[in-house]
Each structure stands twice: as structure tokens, then as C-alpha cells.
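Section 4.2 – Deliverable D4.2 (structural model, holo form)

The reporting period included a commitment to supply a predicted holo structure for the target in complex with pyridoxal-5'-phosphate. Inputs used:
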Amino acid sequence: MADNTTDGSHHIQNDSAEAMQINPQRAKQLVENLTGISKRIDAVNKSGRNVRLIAVSKLKPATDILALHQPQSSSPSSSTPFHTHFGENYVQELLEKSRILPRSIRWHFIGGLQSNKCKQLAEQIPNLWCVSSVDSEKKCNELEKGRKALLSQQQNGSGAEKLRIMVQINTSGEENKSGVEPDDALTLCKHIIEKCPSLQLSGFMTIGAIARSKATTPENVNEDFEKLREVRGAAAQGLGWEEDKLELSMGMSADFEGAIGQGSDEVRVGSEIFGERPPKKDAVV
Ligand SMILES: *Cc1c(COP(=O)(O)O)cnc(C)c1O
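Output (C-alpha cells):
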């Protein structure tokens, strides 16, 4: 539901019936940016496989997300969302956004994860679709507790599914990078499969070294992305799974085209869609 106001902006009644004001110029720009990224993805995706685009909206306002999920320019009779997958890095921010934005959004948690926030994350956000930054059994166990509790509340008709999990790999070997060591990936995968029935292993994620990311072009090979492929190959073999049951999440604004060339199934693009992010202390939901 949208009604035009005198200043030309739209008021949107969302699920929580709170009015959100979207600046039409900003909305148009965001749609153009995202469309441009999609075209660049298609241009390098020679194999024609599905490459999921996660719009990384951390530190950006909820109105930016709504502008991409339900653009006002789309025909009012069409209720098909324009863009569905959004990525967030901070638990509190995601909790707040998920409460005021439509349930048809598929949220990805891609940020540094603390064990003591996992249960809440998996239980309180029924449309949390995937957690991509999982790097310990303890965090898996807490996510399992939360999603199990949510799934058992069937009477609330939440429509929640098993929570998809990507194991984050420290492919660059940098000490300050999160993620499990490549050699420990299989053990964590087995833990998820055997001990966490409310979770579903869906693949591997890496960020990689910044320097390599900046040097990535569609022509040259990024070692972090090669490493992630190797991890998948070894895990698939160890589990007796087909490789294509395990997705690769690699590629951000600076290197997504190269990542797709190296087999990425999912790219996480923030600043190229939303622009520079404000410092965390200045961000408003
Ligand atoms: C912030 C972030 C991104 C997006 O980064 P951009 O360079 O803005 O595209 C992608 N992945 C992760 C894990 C992030 O934290």
C-alpha cells in the first residue's frame, strides 16, 4: 500500500504497520545499481549456472532494503519482490530490521558470529535463510537450539525452514581472519550433518585477503577462491556427496566477477549497490 504525499515520496505500510518513507530518487538509484550488478554477473557467468546475489545492507537503513525488495515503480498489481536476498553483519541490527521489514525477505547473516547470540538469531528471525559465517561446533549447537525451538512452535505458522549453514574457511591463513582452517572443515561439516537436525549444510564461505581481492580480475586467479574450491572438493569426497550439493560463497564488490569465473555460486555485494557505509556508531536502522 503506498500513497503519494505532497513531497512526492511514498509512505509504505509494512507488516508492522509502521510508516516508512522512501526517497524516490534514492530508490531509483538503488534499483539501477542492483540491475547493473546483475548484468555484470550475467556477463561473466559463462556456465549459465545460478549465481545468487546477496545485497549486503549492513549499516544501511531499512528503507534502502525496502526500496529494493518492493520498488514502488513496479506495477502495483505485481506482488513479486524485486530482490529477496539481503546480507547483514550485526545481530542487533538484523533483529531490528527483520521486525519492521517484510517476511518475504531472505536474510543472510554473514558477519562475525558470537556464540552467545546464536540461539537468539536462529529462533527470533523465522526468515533468516542462511548463516554464512559459522566456524565452530559450539556456534552450530547454539544455532541448532534456536532453530529447533522455532521449528517446534509449529502453531505459530512461521513457515520457517531448516537453517542453511555455510562453514566459513580461513583460506588466507591470516591470523586475524575468522573461519576454520581448511583441514578442519570436514569435521565441522560432519558435526552439522550428524548432530544438528535443524540445520542444513549448504556450503563454504570465504572473505580472503584484501590484497588478493583488489588484484582479482576475471583473467587472473585468486588463491583464496582456489583454496575454497579445494576445501569443497575434499569435503564432498569425505562426505560422499556430489560437489554441487555444496555451494561456494565468494566474491564481494571488489572481486565478484573474478569469483564467478572461479566457480562462485553466491556473491555478497554491498558498497557497489548501496554506496559507502557510515561508521557503525552513525548507522540508523
Ligand atoms: C561487508 C561484507 C561484504 C560486502 O562488502 P563490499 O565490499 O561492500 O561489497 C561481503 N561479505 C562480508 C562477509 C562482509 O562482511
